[in-house]
Write a sequence for this structure.
């Protein structure tokens, strides 16, 4: 079982690396920095760290619940903004990342 988890971790890291490369390349096509692709990362990291605390409580701490709710709303907003950036038309001609690949 541990061997299977290791294999899944390797596949996951490989898939995330390919996705990150595709996002960065697409953002470069739009003339944007690849760092825009990291926009949702702080929100998902915060949720991953806080989720065990939320589920470990017998009675809900409403302050923590509200914080997680706001975090999730911001995460979804960041994802929507990133999708809008990725779905837009590329910049015409050459940009700071190189020549237009469609020419």
């Amino acid at each position: 079982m541990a061997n299977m988890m290791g294999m899944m971790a390797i596949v996951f890291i490989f898939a995330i690396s390919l996705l990150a490369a595709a996002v960065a390349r697409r953002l470069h096509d739009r003339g944007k920095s690849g760092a825009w692709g990291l926009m949702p990362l702080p929100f998902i990291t915060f949720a991953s760290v806080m989720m065990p605390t939320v589920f470990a409580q017998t009675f809900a701490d409403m302050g923590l619940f509200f914080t997680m709710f706001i975090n999730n709303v911001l995460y979804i907003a960041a994802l929507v903004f990133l999708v809008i950036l990725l779905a837009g038309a590329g910049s015409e001609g050459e940009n700071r990342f190189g020549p237009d690949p469609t020419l």
